[in-house]
Amino acid sequence: MMESNKTTRNKLSKKDITKLGLLSLFNQSGMNYQRMQADGWTLAMIPSLKKIYGEDKNGLIDALKANLQFINTNNYAAPLLMGLGASLEENNENRSTIDSLRVALFGPIAGIGDAITWFTILPIVAGITASFAQQGSILGPLVFFIVYFAMFLARIPIAHLGYSAGTHAISKIHENSAIVAHAASVLGCTVIGGLIATYVQIDVVTKIHVTASHTISIQKQFFDNIFPNILPLGYTFFLYWLLKKKNVNPVTLIVLTFLLSILLSWMGIL
Amino acid sequence: MMESNKTTRNKLSKKDITKLGLLSLFNQSGMNYQRMQADGWTLAMIPSLKKIYGEDKNGLIDALKANLQFINTNNYAAPLLMGLGASLEENNENRSTIDSLRVALFGPIAGIGDAITWFTILPIVAGITASFAQQGSILGPLVFFIVYFAMFLARIPIAHLGYSAGTHAISKIHENSAIVAHAASVLGCTVIGGLIATYVQIDVVTKIHVTASHTISIQKQFFDNIFPNILPLGYTFFLYWLLKKKNVNPVTLIVLTFLLSILLSWMGIL
Amino acid sequence: MMESNKTTRNKLSKKDITKLGLLSLFNQSGMNYQRMQADGWTLAMIPSLKKIYGEDKNGLIDALKANLQFINTNNYAAPLLMGLGASLEENNENRSTIDSLRVALFGPIAGIGDAITWFTILPIVAGITASFAQQGSILGPLVFFIVYFAMFLARIPIAHLGYSAGTHAISKIHENSAIVAHAASVLGCTVIGGLIATYVQIDVVTKIHVTASHTISIQKQFFDNIFPNILPLGYTFFLYWLLKKKNVNPVTLIVLTFLLSILLSWMGIL
Amino acid sequence: MTVTLVQGISIALFALIAGIDFWLEGFYIFRPMIVCTVTGFLLGDLRLGIIAGGLTELAFAGLTPVGGTQPPNPIMAGIMTVVIAHTTGHSPATAIGLSLPFSILMQYIILFFYSIFSVFTKKADEFIAKGEFRKFGMIVLMPTVIVAFAYAIFSFLSVYGAQSLMRTLVNSMPGWLSHGFTIAGGILPAVGFGLLLKSMLKTKYVPYLLLGFTAACFIKFGNLMPVAIIGASLAWIEYGRKQRENKINKQFKDIEKSLQNSGGEDDGI
Amino acid sequence: MTVTLVQGISIALFALIAGIDFWLEGFYIFRPMIVCTVTGFLLGDLRLGIIAGGLTELAFAGLTPVGGTQPPNPIMAGIMTVVIAHTTGHSPATAIGLSLPFSILMQYIILFFYSIFSVFTKKADEFIAKGEFRKFGMIVLMPTVIVAFAYAIFSFLSVYGAQSLMRTLVNSMPGWLSHGFTIAGGILPAVGFGLLLKSMLKTKYVPYLLLGFTAACFIKFGNLMPVAIIGASLAWIEYGRKQRENKINKQFKDIEKSLQNSGGEDDGI
Amino acid sequence: MTVTLVQGISIALFALIAGIDFWLEGFYIFRPMIVCTVTGFLLGDLRLGIIAGGLTELAFAGLTPVGGTQPPNPIMAGIMTVVIAHTTGHSPATAIGLSLPFSILMQYIILFFYSIFSVFTKKADEFIAKGEFRKFGMIVLMPTVIVAFAYAIFSFLSVYGAQSLMRTLVNSMPGWLSHGFTIAGGILPAVGFGLLLKSMLKTKYVPYLLLGFTAACFIKFGNLMPVAIIGASLAWIEYGRKQRENKINKQFKDIEKSLQNSGGEDDGI
Ligand SMILES: OC[C@H]1O[C@H](O)[C@@H](O)[C@@H](O)[C@@H]1O
Ligand SMILES: OC[C@H]1O[C@H](O)[C@@H](O)[C@@H](O)[C@@H]1O
Ligand SMILES: OC[C@H]1O[C@H](O)[C@@H](O)[C@@H](O)[C@@H]1O
Questions:
Q1: Which of C146, D65, D157, F264 has the smallest count of CB within 10 Å of its CB?
Q2: Is the ipTM here above 0.95?
């Protein structure tokens, strides 16, 4: 039914896709609770769609309207979806195909993206650079900045990937994504285990006075004898349990941690 | 053919099963080579069966007679089988079904139970609490006692598990038990490896006098250079080989170890 | 068609096979680029074939001619193939079957043999004995010699294995060999990782003078802070990349390493 | 030490830029690692900034805006940790605790913005419908601008305006109270890690957590690279394994299909 | 030091209780860890008891009554180790060796009981047949009572009766002999571990044994928790893996079944 | 120190034997570990020989003749490392570097032999055809004899003949140059390991490489046994796993076959 337009669609150049990747930076510029990233997303898509539709202004407006629907995805996954969308528009796919693909993908891809960027890369980079920073070395913030600058630039190849992937690759992405997410979880959980041991610090200062001259340090003679860092591990799991099973708000836990710390400091235990 | 009785069977309460779990303590009270735990087992079953059969004294006596057959299972697995048996009696299953199930299960379940309780839990608890005890800390025996008191109490939920499992679960138990046993073996073997390194002590004291002033310690300069604790590992494997392939009696090995130790002490080697 | 000869073939004794295993030592005695080990291989086969063919001199010469074809296999795998060949001749298999089997097998078996002997056993034995030797202990060369003497003797059981394996086992060997090679690679790569960390030594001596009294050691404060032995790992991977992707000649790399070392020594960096 | 007017303004300017960056999640200069370092630099105490950056980054490691939620604000936490440590002389660990009210307040301001910015959407639709793309662009960028100014103003007030009040307050704290804040700063990362675990940890990943924990306990090294490498190796091995499992599952599905075909409509016979 | 009559009696009483516990395998207070501690307490040297408990527990770790067999008796080993160390001043490690004859003797007594208690079974059958449940209960508990008294008497004689004899014997031992006993005490756990391996070790578990061994060699820590945690992690990972393998095997069986059905009696067409 | 004529001859004799061994790859006394030790012994400095053996063995670990290629010659490297260290007083690490030209020269000589020995093959064929087996044996052994003498002569010239030239050359080296050779000796093993990796490393083995590397970095022990044991354990576990996978793959193939049979020619119904 759209046969008439088919001939008028223009092809995007490599440069256009690169630009699209960079523009994906504006994905969250119009963030709001009603349709989340939709406005910013559309802003980023305008130049590409303009070129694709060329003279066909009505087609362009229809396409943009379709893009202005609720979307909320990971910001490093956004260029992937944008590139994909652009390639579909270019090939004159059905409006409904394009739209439903976007809707179908943004959720799962957000999940994988968050697992990799927020839950694996960030803690690892934070953990390693913090160990430099805590010795006062500028290497800490420097490496941190370089990594995330590279992450920003990665938007460009990601956009190209999405563009060249086209529709065919979708099932493939889906299949491999589960494996990638699994591997990322393995890495992430291992590192978080290490982070807990290294960065959560709980030291019981209480000593038990057995005789006048002989005292037992609770920390050294008890906890450290059972397992090093057992209190940090225990407290983290306690918080995890509150978060997961009791649905407690994180801010509540922060406040709780403070009150507890102050109380135990006042009692001379920590 | 037992239709007439079907209406007279009573249901056990939660409390009854709890009592059954506690009574399983008497499983070995009448231990003997003829039919092993059969008498103690039956003793533990009496109150439950009494309640189930109510007025039907002949039924009760028949059931008890059936229970007085050879049985030998792990003591933490016994309440599981008892609970299972009670549920079957309650549901008026065929006498032969009940009996053959007990006979079919006590062996395999003893295997799994032994793997978990004797070969995994005991060495781990022993290894960890002994490390406290050897420093003279009361924590050693205390933790040991607490663990095994908890193990005793575990008989109650285990009995409930058996009772609620009923017949349907049997194939399930069987299936998972192989996996559980596998995992337990992995844990157990890892820990035993650690125990060998930590608790078997063999130190060669012989020194070779190269020159008047220069001596070489066999232990430090030879064995410790190859691998730490290589002698304990070697000797343990030697005993293992005698036990497994030559079917040597453990008491013989104990005596052998003593004679060897005394001999090598006399020769000034150890 | 060879029915007439069938009765004249003689059986080899155990001793004959043992001798074959020992004679496999001469596998490379006539090494040359035209047909590699073929001449030495044939030399080793003569006594066995003589006995098998007995009076049938023409058969013997035919068999030897067939053996004089290009072959190049791992030297510890050679006795396996020789034993196999002997058993086939003995059973009066088709000439073409025997020949094509030898040709089909020598390549893959060389691969597995090289993986195990050159790439796993050698680096491990070298790594461990070198750690003794570097302390000046005679244990180093002694253990090395004993291991390889045992390896030489292993030619005997390997020849027996090949002989008893016969044709039937070939698919089996093929199947298991992939698994063995996989396991050997796992072991080999783990050990090579360790070797890189232990035996490649690169220490940057440059210090940065921040103030007159305060200097920063590049090695200790930078590289060692990131990861121990990171330079050896990096350089090894760099060479690996040159070898694998750029097909650079190893001798070139040796020369390169020397020139680089001398240059950096002259510049005072290493 | 006090914060001068120039310092206050320059920190506010940096907050404006970092605020935009956090809004867009662009270059991650909004993370405490960078925010603290820059603030320290602006206050003339770079070293303090870097150290505080390390501590605060970790304390906020798990506090992420995933799924469109808002965590306690990392920018205000970063700025105020350094400012408080600098002006009151407390350790950064204590200062993290004291910076938290500012961080949480900013979190609520952003949440408020998320709600009210919905009002722009109607106008945006109209501009698109009419094809007025420039106007559409301006209205979409409006929220970013508003947010940026909010950061600038809020941080200027917190850093420069409230500083004497802050100092009095902090200096009158009894020892156990500031010690309590220090302790809290040390325990705080647990919240973040708990959050990370909430979204990552399934039963099957517990052993990896334990392995990482044990490795970090017994490998004495200044950073987490060894643990990360062990984790990466395990992940790599698992990756290969899962691929083979997927292949197997696919083969099963193929067989099922051909079974159904041959079983259902055996028309070839 | 000598053992007083009161101490002798109280140890005998404890042996009676622990004996019942071992007979029933109830609370595991029959294990050397507890037996030694209590004996040490009763002799007024708790610390010695605890230390000996640790050593003896390990020496007996693999000596279990699995399958209705009888190991060298842990109760008598525990009691006599502490008593000998206490009265002769030898180290617990040496005392373990010297306690062994008592332990093996008691093992044989129990084995003897296992045999003769068969005589009660006929009576037990009769009581059940007649419905005399109380009498049945008494006859079933009879072995427990007999065993209990055997423990009390045997331990009293060993601890109190034989003590001067024991002391003379031990004190006249030459140095190399008592050193030999010490060494034996250190090697003894190998027997137990060998027994454990006999029932657990299959070829496929050897690598885990080696990993645990290596880990324990190089992780410097006072107890085995690190190794246990590593082992538990590996076990956990294996558990998940086996489950998936089981699933695959089940799928194969299902396919085979439907293959047989469709191949054999294709009556649906 | 100088090399005496007797020493020169005895080294040449040893080179002859080791040369045959390398040609046949028989007892591996051609590896630097043995060559250096024996050379050291012949020069009256066994300890130097052993230490140089350890170093040179590692430097040549990956330089193997796999696939009929020729690596830099391990025999000449071993001999000359010890000789140079002995005569010039330089450390073995430096000497490895200086021995390399000899090693590479010998490599080329062997390569040359590989080519020309092809001329014997025609004669060999003839002898076989005529059934003259003794003559065949002699012509096949000829290359071995030639190679043996080449080793003897080349090593005698290098060790004894060129020694004063060598000493002058080495002693006139500036400090940075000999230091450069020392450094090169320390880095040289990387070439061998790179070669090993070239033939072994697939992507799926990288994690094992990293695990071994990390283990060696943090386990403080004098040799690589711990890493080897960890590697062996992992290999063992993988072995079992692969076997199960193979079984699964076989089952798939069986099913496929029976599917094809039942689908294609269902002649049983
Ligand atoms: O969860 C998906 C996505 O949600 C929001 O849009 C942002 O917080 C992103 O950082 C996140 O990745
Ligand atoms: O082996 C099953 C079972 O056998 C005996 O009855 C006892 O030794 C138990 O401890 C053991 O569990
Ligand atoms: O690669 C197969 C084989 O090739 C050559 O013949 C020799 O270098 C052997 O050492 C090697 O095993």
A1: F264
A2: no
